[in-house]
């Protein structure tokens, strides 16, 4: 069929072989046929409900599984961001410790240099004071007055050495000032780096806090999704028993009805043989349009088992004309449960074609010729979109329509 819910109910389609119960000459009495038909209709209605619930459970499970995968990815990303932020904060803290130690060392060096500068300045000032306060000049005058030349020479030598000492002190003070200036510049750069690192540390802390908050939020969402997934999985498991029972019942009913058809097609003289050569042209496609779903097995999403898609789906708009695939006799026309509005045409020799989900039909009985208009495409029964579900059956057994084109 053209939807997920119709795929879940493929096996229900087999049950519509109950049209054999109404064939002329059937061994089943009319009242029994009506009773069985009513039971089949009730079964189809229950099947539609079960299939819908099963599909909802499967879709819910698939949705939560997809959500879980996304949530786990978001959680991993948030945790990675938090770890990266914490690691960066640790690195910045280590750099801050180093920078602050460099600051302390720089301050100590500057203090030592300043102490040495102060000591040398005191020495220089003391020398200058002794040289210029008059004590040295008075001594020189006294020596000249006494005529003691040697003493004068000694004093001049001392004066020269004092001058040399002053110059040396001035040079040392200049060097110390240059060193102090360099240390001050280095200290200023260290302090700028400390300020930058502190800002980075604050940013890293903020990032870590935000990443942790995101991780906690995602973790909570993940827990909620996991709980939802468990509920969805439980819902699917609950549907499994119903689906298994449904499949078993429909398979049993299909076997019974197929046996009735086989008995009828034999006509008491052996079953007619209807060879299905590939590409024989025995049948024509009943409606113009692309094949959207082939005949063959499908997987039940609840049971995980294979179910037979008993016909071929042809995409066509509602109201498109439907033509008889071959000449024959209309043996059934009406609402057929999951098939919706359907027409069955008997072509003789055990070959029957069915046309399903129609919006309406032109012929409800009597003979039709190949290509005659018999109805219009629709979306009745277990269908969610306009299309034609076309079946070919041989002695009641569904076969691949492609063998009869």
Detail the topology: elements first, then pairings:
Elements: H1 4-8, H2 10-14, H3 30-132, H4 135-146, H5 149-266, E1 291-293, E2 296-299, E3 306-309, E4 312-315, E5 321-323, E6 328-335, E7 341-348, E8 351-358, E9 360-361, E10 366-368, E11 373-376, E12 387-394, E13 397-399
Antiparallel strand pairs: 1-4, 2-3, 4-12, 5-11, 6-7, 6-10, 7-8, 8-12, 9-11, 12-13
Give a description of the structure:
- This is Peptidase M23 family protein.
- Residues 1-29 form the signal peptide.
- Residues 33-81, 173-260 form a coiled coil.
- InterPro entries: Cell_wall_metabolism_enzyme, Dup_hybrid_motif, M23ase_b-sheet_dom.
- Residues 261-282 are annotated as: Disordered.
- It is a single chain.
- Helix 4 (135-146) runs antiparallel to helix 5.
- The chain has 2 domains: 1-271, Helix Hairpins (Orthogonal Bundle), CATH 1.10.287; 274-405, Glucose Permease (Domain IIA) (Distorted Sandwich), CATH 2.70.70.10.
- It is 60% helix and 15% strand.
- The protein is an alpha+beta fold and 405 residues long.
- The chain is rod-shaped.
- Strands 1, 4, 6, 7, 8, 10, 12 and 13 form an 8-stranded antiparallel sheet that branches.
- It has helices spanning 4-8, 10-14, 30-132, 135-146, 149-266; strands at residues 291-293, 296-299, 306-309, 312-315, 321-323, 328-335, 341-348, 351-358, 360-361, 366-368, 373-376, 387-394, 397-399.
């Amino acid at each position: 069929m053209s939807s997920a819910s119709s795929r879940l109910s493929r096996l229900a389609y087999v049950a519509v072989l109950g049209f054999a119960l109404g064939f002329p000459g059937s061994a089943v009495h009319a009242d029994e046929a009506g009773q069985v038909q009513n039971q089949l209709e009730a079964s189809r209605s229950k099947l539609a409900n079960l299939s819908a619930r099963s599909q909802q459970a499967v879709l819910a499970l698939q949705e939560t599984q997809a959500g879980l995968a996304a949530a786990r990815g978001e959680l991993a990303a948030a945790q990675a961001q938090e770890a990266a932020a914490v690691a960066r904060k640790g690195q910045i803290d280590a750099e801050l410790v180093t920078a602050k130690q460099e600051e302390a060392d720089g301050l100590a060096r500057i203090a030592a240099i300043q102490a040495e500068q102060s000591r040398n300045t005191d020495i220089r000032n003391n020398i200058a004071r002794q040289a210029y306060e008059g004590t040295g000049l008075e001594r020189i005058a006294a020596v000249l007055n006494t005529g003691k030349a040697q003493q004068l020479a000694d004093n001049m030598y001392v004066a020269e050495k004092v001058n040399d000492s002053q110059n040396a002190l001035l040079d040392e003070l200049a060097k110390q000032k240059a060193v102090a200036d360099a240390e001050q510049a280095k200290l200023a750069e260290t302090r700028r780096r400390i300020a930058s690192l502190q800002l980075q540390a604050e940013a890293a802390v903020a990032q870590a806090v935000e990443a942790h908050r995101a991780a906690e939020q995602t973790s909570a969402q993940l827990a909620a999704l996991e709980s939802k997934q468990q509920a969805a999985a439980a819902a699917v498991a609950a549907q499994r028993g119903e689906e298994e029972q449904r499949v078993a019942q429909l398979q049993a009913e299909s076997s019974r009805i197929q046996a009735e058809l086989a008995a009828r097609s034999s006509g008491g003289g052996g079953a007619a043989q209807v060879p299905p050569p590939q590409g024989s042209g025995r049948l024509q496609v009943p409606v113009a349009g692309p094949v959207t779903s082939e005949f063959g097995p499908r997987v039940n999403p609840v049971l995980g088992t294979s179910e037979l898609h008993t016909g071929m789906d042809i995409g066509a708009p509602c109201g498109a004309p439907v033509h008889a695939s071959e000449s024959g006799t209309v043996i059934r026309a009406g609402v057929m449960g999951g098939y919706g509005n359907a027409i069955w045409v008997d072509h003789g020799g055990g070959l029957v074609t069915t046309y399903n989900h129609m919006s309406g039909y032109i012929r409800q009985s009597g003979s039709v010729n190949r290509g005659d208009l018999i109805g219009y495409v629709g979306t009745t029964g277990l269908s969610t979109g306009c299309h034609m579900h076309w079946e070919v059956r041989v002695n009641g057994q569904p076969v691949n329509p492609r063998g009869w084109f």
